[in-house]
Amino acid sequence: MDPSTGNDPQTFYGWPVRKYNYLDGHLANDTRNVAGYNIYFIRLPELYLLYAYLLKDTDAATALEYVNKVHRRAWGYDPDSPSAVDYQTLADRTKTASDDHLANDPILYEMWAEMFGEMRWWEYVRHFRLGRQEADWYKTVSGPGAAKTNIVWKDRNYAMPIPTKEFESNPNPDMVQTPGY
């Protein structure tokens, strides 16, 4: 903290994504930081997109309408009225690059865009088993030759390890760690 910036180290938190930051009160050592909270709520646009995903193979018209409700609201249109930004099909071109695996998947693209910065996309990557596509896409956008492009996707990344405390508190001797951890 350089005094010339005028930033007070007791209140300055930098420039992270502001969602879910604990800016009131104090955390450990009087810092204000990303709190790592588990967020137990779901917003209406997320419910609409999950509903659309559920219906996409059996009632595509209703699924498309729910995707468009989210898309319209994001663009400032009335969610309940047709608009100039509506998708016409569930395979329409999205706003991402043409070689992105979400380029023609409005449901997943809108999930990514709507939940950006809310710590949810990884859960959807795991749920929809998009890890390999996400890793391959990241390699193309992170810069050729950069060390971070050396991602090697392993399907074991879909599973989460069982926390050590769970093993310590569980009397069942047959409990085993998730394979790969």
Protein architecture, described:
With 181 residues, the chain is mostly helical. It is built from six helices and no strands. Helix 1 (44-55) runs antiparallel to helix 3 and helix 2 (60-74) packs parallel to helix 3 (106-114). 13% of the residues are buried. Belongs to the SusD family. It is found in: Cell outer membrane. Its main location: membrane. This is RagB/SusD family nutrient uptake outer membrane protein.
Question: What share of residues is helical?
Answer: 25-40%
Derived from helix and strand composition plus strand pairing, the structural class reads mainly alpha
Question: Secondary-structure element sequence?
Answer: HHHHHH
Question: Helical region count?
Answer: 6
> How far is the first residue's CA from the last residue's CA?
39 Å
Strand content: under 5%
Q: Mean pLDDT, rounded to whole units?
A: 80
Largest sheet: none
Number of strands: 0
Shape category? extended
Low-confidence stretches: 26-35
Spatial extent as radius of gyration: 21 Å
Subcellular location: Cell outer membrane
Family: Belongs to the SusD family.
Keywords: Cell outer membrane, Membrane, Signal
Protein name: RagB/SusD family nutrient uptake outer membrane protein
